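Case study B.
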Amino acid sequence: MELSPENPLSAEPEIETSHPEEFVEQLRCVTDSLPSRINIDAEGVEQGLAKLVLTLIEFIRRLLEKQAVRRMEGGDLSPEQIEELGLALMKLEAKLHELKTQFGLTDEDLNLDLGPIGRLI
Amino acid sequence: MKLYAYCLVEDVGALEATPLGISGAPVRLLEMDEFAVLVSDFNTETVAVSRENALAHAAVVRSVLDRTTPLPFRFGTVVTEQQLRSYISARKPALQTRFALLRGCVEMSVKIIRELSRANSAHAEITSGTTFLQEKQREIRGSEQSAAEAKDISTWLQDQVKALTRDEQVIVRPSEKLVVAAAHLVERAKIPQYKETLAAAREKRSELHFLVSGPWPPYSFANIELEFKSQFRVS
Amino acid sequence: MSSSFDQMIVTEEWDSTDLSLLETLDHVLNRGLVIAGEITISVADIDLIFVGLNVLVSSVETAHEVLRKRQTE
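Model:
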């Protein structure tokens, strides 16, 4: 793009890409994340609270898994301890999955965007 | 009486023809201290996030770009004149510093998409607590690698243009297809060279998909609050 | 990053296939100088939606109002 009187900076910005559909798909999150309707009746509020709570639990659960793997790799756990830890976390994962289903939430729903901290999940 | 604020500018005298703003309201220049604010009167309760309003906001901010570099406000900034004056007088030094950084520059935007690699190899059957943790270990290693790759792409991009940029704001999202979203602060005179450099760089990474847009007013570099936070280490 | 949007945020139908519009939205909605004050944003239907914790709290407060009113009806 040549800067010239015919092409001032105040003209509309150029957009240049060889894959417009792909970028449309990805950028739609900006508008898609504004849901079209949310009810402020009791059910809607419960839904919103459940989503918030489950997202935080999910975050902690992921951290626990990472920590457990690190301990396992670190070599200071006995085989029995590893097995117990694994079973406990397996149950936690299953329980959380059950709760998600109960509230009709998907993994996508629990994707809390904290800006600079980035996606948690 | 409320105002819709579009951007802050260093005092530039009168405005030339400015497009109509939100809900078709006329835009005027309000002088404040050594700065000025582009505003329009705002009478309703709420600002509609409509195509027309978003484009109007963008057009108003863009209209001053030939004469000066504005500090754009985020869409939806509705304030009273008094609130504006307090805000500006309380932050004068930070605003001056910010204008000094942005003077003579525009923003160019680069977004990169890469295909996400599918998890390799069949998943082991989870028969016990131990195999559960081993499978998690495999998943974690995979996502760590993904994060490293994403960081590499981001670093590569920065290296291509760092001689031409005054500042950059980059968001890296390793688990997304849109892995890197970068904003570059580029001096106006260097724009043609910047575009050429990018065009050449893109050729070398055909596995990546690029979107380059601009020039924009420096939206990504306008926020002074972050600067304040990093100075005093407030998290 | 706390949202500076106040509580009245609603959505309308977008032509979300317009790349130029999406890029513009990415710049004007997500970036730019954020100033404390009354920032009220609405979209077509008058609905309350969640954008962040602040908004969630105020939605709950408002919802309690609604619930309380219902119980007395």
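The helical segments of chain A are 20-27, 29-32, 42-74, 79-102. The remaining cases will be described in the next quarterly update.
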